[in-house]
Amino acid sequence: MMTITTAQASTCSPAELASRHRRLLADAVRAVAARTAFSAFTGREPSGPQGDEATALFSAQLETPLDLPGHIGVPTLQTDEVSPWTRLPLGVSYPRAEAPALIEHARQAQAPWSARTIDERAGICIEMIERMFAANVVLGLAAMHTTGQGRGMSRSGSGTNALDRGLEAVAAAWQVLSRVPTAASWEQTFGAELVALEKTYRIVPMGPALVVACASFPAWNVYPAVFANLMAGNPVIVKPHPSSVLQMALAVEIMRETLTDAGCDPDAVQLAVDSAAEPITSILATHPKVRIVDFTGSARYGAWVEEHARQARVYSETSGLNAVVLDSFTDTDAALRAVAGAISLFSAQMCTAPQNIYVPESGVVTPEGVLSADELEQGLIDAAAAIAESPRRAAAVLGAIQSERTIDEIADLTATLRARAHVLSEPRSWAAPEFPRARTSTPLIARVSLDDEDLFAHECFGPVVFLIRVPDARTALQRAAADAAAHGAITAFLYSTDEPLIDSAEEAFAAAGASLTINVTGAMPINFSAAFSDFHVSGLNPAGTATLTDDSFVTGRFRVVQSRRPLRPSHN
Amino acid sequence: MMTITTAQASTCSPAELASRHRRLLADAVRAVAARTAFSAFTGREPSGPQGDEATALFSAQLETPLDLPGHIGVPTLQTDEVSPWTRLPLGVSYPRAEAPALIEHARQAQAPWSARTIDERAGICIEMIERMFAANVVLGLAAMHTTGQGRGMSRSGSGTNALDRGLEAVAAAWQVLSRVPTAASWEQTFGAELVALEKTYRIVPMGPALVVACASFPAWNVYPAVFANLMAGNPVIVKPHPSSVLQMALAVEIMRETLTDAGCDPDAVQLAVDSAAEPITSILATHPKVRIVDFTGSARYGAWVEEHARQARVYSETSGLNAVVLDSFTDTDAALRAVAGAISLFSAQMCTAPQNIYVPESGVVTPEGVLSADELEQGLIDAAAAIAESPRRAAAVLGAIQSERTIDEIADLTATLRARAHVLSEPRSWAAPEFPRARTSTPLIARVSLDDEDLFAHECFGPVVFLIRVPDARTALQRAAADAAAHGAITAFLYSTDEPLIDSAEEAFAAAGASLTINVTGAMPINFSAAFSDFHVSGLNPAGTATLTDDSFVTGRFRVVQSRRPLRPSHN
């Protein structure tokens, strides 16, 4: 077994863990209630392995079976897992088990896990988060070589930010669960008789929960789902994408180790690994005993899961048509850099990346006068090219492309667009300094018209940008909001100095369920979503139902059952 | 139009209503958070018509079109509505409209309604509740002559208790909604740059909501659903059962009148009336624009709605197999009276009524020694007979049978049981003093064995009781809990002095999702469910998913969408 968390691993009772992490929990609960800025990791360095030590530990795991003590299953080589950076197979074997056995082990773990108090469960979950943070550099390398993310993002977006979203889910769940009173004394007069009852209220978990991860950014959705489930008392089966297992397997290893050290059954968190050739997700998702499914992945498969997993409550995040509406700029260069950054970041393999940028025929008002539609297009292309032209910067910002299929789809789309539309920037691969064989692509940027909705009115995964010519910004707004409502969107972006237009945009995107970012430029990527503060996925459009993190993300995972009896004297 | 609420009807702005009802809201919020005893109506008499005046107003509505000012639809005689007490058609005409028109009117009402603040919506909802309370006696007569309830129950269970459950939903929703912050200032450093954003969070309603009522106890489920929806900003279409319209139509009249008086669009609450011959529920429930369905009714149709209303979030309450486990008594007569009362109350046409009573072969321990199984059976039969033997008491407790079909089904079942089991008490009709033609029945009580699960393992609606012989109480407990989990149950009842058995029962019924009442005797009907305190329907078994009232009853009815932009100086 890798020893990636030696610094913190030690036996500790659930009550001790509750006590140890009480203050962090309280801070997180305050933040999640007020939606203010908060991170558990600001100004902290991971206490676990870093630098060469981390690299050595990561390399030692390659070509090696991953050991998950006590986990059922037969070690099986994961042939679908190939680094997007090196194009070499990772060669890791994971324990593989059949769905019924995993579910049975989950069911066995449920009663003792749900018998823990809410504070104890929170303490154990936060201990898991702290241990994952300690191992952040090693987990980041695993994220990097499965998702294709750059080194920085693999430690922040897939590391601390994802862990913060996990902690947010712990806090949100704690808040919801702790509001349910454990007992009440009740008195009411019936006729002349005073009836006095004592009532107890019990949190009952729904049952085994399945968490299906996507290939390109698994941690960000897996951690909130796992922790919301564990807080509610549900045992969890984490099912990574077959091409992107290692980071989640190491995360599960740390979670199980934490459970074991706390004297709990480690099967409260299990790993389900399958292959592209022999998938297991549908079997797990539709099993009668699986009661919760968190699904992140394609819209098509997500719809299948929602259609067929009728025995479960399904929380989903699939895909969306994120739009940029351009009306007027206060700082043209800053705005163009911001938009170019968002379409470049991790090569738009993020659910918050914009795809459809609306370009008004009438141009955009700037302090220097009107920028024509053509000038605006050229400005965006130049700003995107500036990011891609330095291989070092490209490696950090664009990262690699997770799946060969994305490269193929972009090639096919480019051919289609050449025949039908104006391709303004052809996708091209570029050589990353550290990994010359990396699977890479600059964005495909094409000009289309509103009539080309067969092209732009569905998600094209990866670095694909449509510059959609529209008469004016209001037309853009209407169209973008209508597409968000009909086809799904998580984010929307507006640049405008026109307050009535901003008001209209807030109305329209609120109704369509897309979170709106207005006039943001500068160092923060405009599609960055802040844990504790930004609600992510509204549930109002087809992009999904799993809102990070509102009450509804928690309330479907447990139920309350009561018992009542005459008030006993000892309780008076 | 009937003037059933003259005492309170007056023009009043939403802000004034919010202010007027602020204190009651605060009291209700406190009660719902602590689950303590509370009622808005203790010690109060309705200010509206009572006695002869109420009777005259009710009678004046019979054989007359109900006027709902501004409501779409063509007045149509409701031929399915026949009083279970007089067996005479009510002869009321209601406006009938097609589903698309109702939904379009709801959609028109949504934006202005959801633009009201949460406090204003609460003020208007509580004003509706107060006006319905003022009209409690007239609404009670309407409940009585549609459901068959006795006069007392029609004013309490279908009156104040149902209104309290409605107020509970207002308070629960207010609590959930008001926790979502409306805005936050957010700062985070990216590199050397401090990024400061202002964020706003907006409650967005899901869309038109359909509330489908049952025939025998509509108010109790309709009020919570209507008010949870209105609080979340959703316009509501109330769809009564075709044989039980009048009470809900009058309630909708009062709600619309309140909306109009507050300067709001009355179409935020509409009435959908259909007939048994031309039902409209399936069309409404599966319409793409209907986003919430609250369904109370049969398990079979409820399953159809859940299967087909895929565009909506469905909250359901269907049926269940409520059980009584008998182990030991401290007061034999009191226990027998309590159980007999529960099987007699409104002739078991309540979702909380027990059907399956487990009788241990070994008998039941009492202070006077062991009561044999045969003695126990006889005791129950005698206790039930004592209730039915006085026509006046029978009219008050048993009430009438809502549907002729229930009478037919009991007759069929009696024939089956005569051939297969031991019928201990044959159902017989009895003459109510005030209404000699009333449709009535004493309970059918039969002894069966555990092998007769084809008889007892599904709900037999109405006054049907199986005395199931079991070896001992623990066997009964296991079987009752297993049936609750598999077939659905809302309540369970236990009489025992054995604390380890009580602990086991609490565990088993909590896991099965049935609310447990232990050793309760006396003036309170043991299947009484207290607003603000008792959670009703757990969502853990097939009896339904609509829990009165927990957070999950509210959180599925709205979503939160955010907008963010650079912090403006004026906001510093």
UniProtKB/TrEMBL annotation, chains A, B:
Keywords: NAD, Oxidoreductase. GO terms for biological process: L-proline catabolic process to L-glutamate. The keyword Flavoprotein does not apply. It holds the Pfam family Aldedh. Residues 96-510 form the Aldehyde dehydrogenase domain. One of its GO terms (cellular component) is cytoplasmic side of plasma membrane. It comes from the Bacteria. The keyword NAD applies. One of its GO terms (molecular function) is L-glutamate gamma-semialdehyde dehydrogenase activity. This is Phenylacetic acid degradation protein paaN. It comes from Agromyces cerinus subsp. cerinus. The lineage of its organism: Bacteria, Bacillati, Actinomycetota, Actinomycetes, Micrococcales.
